[in-house]
Each structure stands twice: as structure tokens, then as C-alpha cells.
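WARN  no MSA supplied for this record, continuing single-sequence
INFO  ligand: magnesium ion
INFO  echoing inputs
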Amino acid sequence: MGFFDKLKKITLDLFSGFTEADEAFFEELEETLILADLGMDTAVEAVEQLRSRVRKEKLRDQEEVRAALRDILAEMISVQDTALDLSTRPSVVLFIGVNGVGKTTSIGKLAHQLKGEGQRVLLCAADTFRAAAADQLAIWAERAGCEIVRQHEGADPGAVLFDALQAAKARGVDVVLCDTAGRLHNKANLMAELSKLSKIIDREYPGAARETLLVLDATTGQNGLVQARQFKEAAGLTGIVLTKLDGTAKGGIVVAIAKELGVPVKLAGVGEGIGDLRPFDAKEYVEAII
Ligand SMILES: Nc1nc2c(ncn2[C@@H]2O[C@H](COP(=O)(O)OP(=O)(O)O)[C@@H](O)[C@H]2O)c(=O)[nH]1
Ligand SMILES: [Mg+2]
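INFO  complex generated
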């Protein structure tokens, strides 16, 4: 069962016993939203808003209550535009996030998708921490049919990015997708590295359309929110890629992140295959959950 199906089942169960929007219903709803990983604060606030709307508007039947709840969650999620800004040639997308969340895989999937739209894509292997990281990216480059710029293990990630940007300009590449290491010797080190990469793009290509996408594993639940806070502070995020939604009924982290950090989820990973990436649609999400 996919993520949306699972969520649908949870909320179907909730509403199947619905008789009226009484205290027992609100309590069960709050529990359901916490289970779906909205986080305590967000779940409590959503239920609080619903309570007050039910009271003010005298909502009675199930459909009215559902619709009100959809509105409330959609409002919480709706931050900026969720489309990627790839308006310049080249444009640059940095993928950041801790180890194992799905950065390299998401790059492979996005490369495949952009290639299918006729874009010329170049992958940049700026995760030089392990040799295997660039090898893994090279496999994705081959699958997606795009180019890759890499160096030896332990190379300066900034130097790899510099090379990639030069190559992109020289070859008329449309989009550069840049992989980064999720683990350096410590967190300060990692954040300094990311800020350095960002400066290289500023310097080499000041007018570039840029995205800095934080990749989060939906199965890690509320821990994702902690990661998002830290990376936002250090790197200035433009969006989230939420991966492994196929492996969990959770994913309510979307609401918490949008609400607390104002960063939109732009892409959703729904499997390990090359076609398993889709645009994240807040409306679809809310309709699935409620
Ligand atoms: N089920 C599932 N697995 C995923 C998804 N995205 C990535 N993975 C898996 O997560 C693991 C780590 O991915 P990887 O791209 O190497 O993470 P990175 O360390 O952030 O680059 C791999 O086994 C991927 O196949 C997804 O959307 N769904
Ligand atoms: Mg990787």
C-alpha cells in the first residue's frame, strides 16, 4: 500500500465511526493526526481550529466537518509555489541532507525526469567523502543518460562544483544537479562546506536560478523537523524532497515543516526506481489524508 492509501485508511477508520463532532471525535482526530506524524503542536492546533469552526459555523454532518478540516490543513501547508525554479541556463540544484536519506537516488530520478522533458542535465559529484558516493552517482548518470563531473575520493567538493559549472557553461547544459556529502567530520564542518558550495555558485554564476533542496526521509518522523531547522539555518532552503513515502503512513511532517519553517515540500520520493519521484501536491495530500 502506498503512502496515500495508508493515510486514507487511517482517516476512513476515523470517519467510519463518525456520529457527531463531539469531544470524543476531536480527541480521536488529534491522535490520528499525531500518528500521521503531524507533530504534537500542529495536530493540537489543527484540532483547535476545527473545534472553533464547528462551533461557529454549527457544522454537523461528516462532509462539512471533513471539508473544514481539509481547509485548515491546506491552509497550513500552502506556502510558496512548489515548482522548481530552473529558469536560467544552466540552473543549479543543490541536494543536501544527512546520510542515507536519498539524496543521490533523488538526483538520479530527477535527472531522468528532466532528461525526458528534453533538458540537458549534468550531475556534479560533490560528495567526495567516500569513493562509492561518486560511483553510485555515476550509475544514476548512466541510467538517466546524462553527464557527470567527478574527481577522486577526498577531493575538495568546491573544486568539483567549480569544474561542473565550467563544464555546464561550456557545453550548454540546462540543469546542474549537485550531490553533497551528508556527513563530514562534524556538523559545523558540514554546514561550512555547504555555505562554501553556495558561495561558489554565487561567484561563478551570479544570475543562476538556484534551488537548495533538503532531502528528508519520511520514515524518520519528527526527527526530520529537527534536521530541517538545522539545515535551514545553515543553508537557506528553497524546498524539501520528502523520500520513502512508500514505506510509511507517516508524512505529516510536511505540515509541520510548512507551518513552522515556511519551506515547501516540492518533490516526493515514492520508491527506489528511476520513475519514483513526483511533484508534491499539497491539495492531493490533504485530500488523501482527510
Ligand atoms: N523505498 C524508498 N527507498 C528510497 C527512496 N529514496 C531513496 N531510497 C533508498 O534509500 C537508500 C539511501 O539512498 P541514497 O540516495 O544513497 O541516500 P544519500 O546517502 O542521501 O545519498 C537507498 O537504498 C535508496 O534506494 C524512496 O523514495 N523510497
Ligand atoms: Mg549519496
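The mean pLDDT is 88.
INFO  checksum written, moving to next record
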